[in-house]
């Protein structure tokens, strides 16, 4: 039996324990920054300094990381380093009050009360509710009072003309405070928007949150926070921000579209469409809304509707690269490759520096043909002659959903040879459900079935199953007609995936019944690991019946193998198996290759 098809095809599960692990990638600056802040709050200042310095080596002008580093250096007693760090922040961002507060702390520690008071007043003018700055102002006032009471009186009272009292620092007026607050708010929003457009979502979120503390009911800030938190996969927080914005401004289209995009990410296309249609009813000419509705059409498998939306948008505007990329993607999915190419070229003309449009131009149509050839050699105990099993398979993709396959199989058993010819069709009704049907015939059969009919299906029942990845239900059925018997087999299975579908586990129940009502049951356990994009392993164990010469034989099999893609269009598979049955044992080795063209 060829290793590419039999129920017992698996490897020792222990092989997985020896799989090499890909080297860890360098941490992103945002992650380093977050860890540095956490270490600082935990009092682990050396670790905090190391993390923040690493973040700054990637982003030297990250003022958030610089401010945190300044406070770490302050805690370590590195006052000169802290002074230089805070001053650098104010050069990069003159309105960053946290850095000014850090300099006030340094001045206070150095006994320069005038400088400390001046800097603290500036912070309070911009942030009247800054509790830390207010506490520092109180400490400065107490220090001044202590200086007065502890000053030594002169040894002799010499009449002198008292110096005129120093004028008290002027308190900012309410209008000055309000103006400073507006200036601070505008500076934070401008800086946050720049960071968001640069792709630095974590730093932008920090700025937007500070802005929100100054203007808690600003719907624009809430929508911006929804965008940056969604970019960081903080979907619950993003939903809350968009929802708050919508409650404050019920006609705010961007907030409603933000909620619709989150629903689409959660595969709730019905809710996404409801929200998008509401937005369209309020703003019928919105291009953003129509683009989102096209994406929802694609998610629901309605490529015709999506194509019509993109085409209508392309007629309305001839300078929107996103519209042309969407039109190209839809036609590429429909296998209208020439039309897709034309749309991509137009998108690249509109936005020649955009890596998305450049990447689309490099897309090649999928290869429709696939040819597989392979052979299996089995050595049997008890002085039995060896078995061989060879296959040649040719497949052709008629459409994105349909594939037809023809197969020839040449097998030898006990000095007899059978040639089997088969055909199969696979059809994907949606991204979640696919089915297949097959037929095979063996002229002048000695041990293979004269005719074999098969059918099956695969159904993704959950995108996020108990293991965190997709969960599938599968079913295969097969009915074989031999010279003097018939056997029906059922193979229901459940498959779970984790780690971005790089690791899967599959359990198959095997039920076989012949026309004499003899029943045999068993199971197959299999796990697959994609160690890299080009190298995969599988292993497992089977305790299941096998059909030969129209009879059922109980077998127990350890099996496993590897799959390797030396280039994108070639795959090489190798597998081994050790099978035990009552009459003998069998050791098998199989090798095959596939090429796509």
Automatic annotation (TrEMBL):
<keyword id="KW-0677">Repeat</keyword>
<dbReference type="InterPro" id="IPR030887">
    <property type="entry name" value="Beta-barrel_YaiO"/>
</dbReference>
<feature type="repeat" description="TPR">
    <location>
        <begin position="29"/>
        <end position="62"/>
    </location>
</feature>
<protein>
    <submittedName>
        <fullName>Outer membrane protein, YaiO family</fullName>
    </submittedName>
</protein>
<dbReference type="Pfam" id="PF14559">
    <property type="entry name" value="TPR_19"/>
</dbReference>
<feature type="repeat" description="TPR">
    <location>
        <begin position="63"/>
        <end position="96"/>
    </location>
</feature>
<dbReference type="InterPro" id="IPR019734">
    <property type="entry name" value="TPR_rpt"/>
</dbReference>
<feature type="compositionally biased region" description="Pro residues">
    <location>
        <begin position="161"/>
        <end position="172"/>
    </location>
</feature>
<feature type="signal peptide">
    <location>
        <begin position="1"/>
        <end position="26"/>
    </location>
</feature>
<feature type="compositionally biased region" description="Low complexity">
    <location>
        <begin position="150"/>
        <end position="160"/>
    </location>
</feature>
<keyword id="KW-0732">Signal</keyword>
<dbReference type="InterPro" id="IPR011990">
    <property type="entry name" value="TPR-like_helical_dom_sf"/>
</dbReference>
<feature type="region of interest" description="Disordered">
    <location>
        <begin position="142"/>
        <end position="175"/>
    </location>
</feature>
<dbReference type="InterPro" id="IPR051012">
    <property type="entry name" value="CellSynth/LPSAsmb/PSIAsmb"/>
</dbReference>
<keyword id="KW-0802">TPR repeat</keyword>
<feature type="repeat" description="TPR">
    <location>
        <begin position="321"/>
        <end position="354"/>
    </location>
</feature>
<feature type="repeat" description="TPR">
    <location>
        <begin position="219"/>
        <end position="252"/>
    </location>
</feature>
<feature type="repeat" description="TPR">
    <location>
        <begin position="97"/>
        <end position="130"/>
    </location>
</feature>
